[in-house]
Fold this sequence. Notes:
It is built from five helices and two strands. It is mainly alpha-helical. Strands 1-2 form a two-stranded antiparallel sheet. It is flat and about 45 Å long. The two termini are 22 Å apart.
Amino acid sequence: MKTDPEFFTLARLRKVTEVQVREIFDTTPDFCLIDERTRLLQELGTALQPFGSFTAFLEKSGYDCAALVGLITSHLPGFRDEAIYAGHQVFFYKRA
Length: 96
């Protein structure tokens, strides 16, 4: 945040590159899953655009944790950790 306070604006997140993510979060060449992290940040910038800001997105939940997880999982596919196990759908929203 100190080096680039505008980095987390929705407009910037929509267009963020792997190089920029690496510069902001870490300087080591073996920073794990950089492509996935970049994709999720781009998804975040795009999905929250209709809300105008993360704050507005948060306010939409009424500051209720369960409602916020519902919003996150409905608007951000990268945060939907779901699988079929033993014939049952299992939800594990650890990132949400």
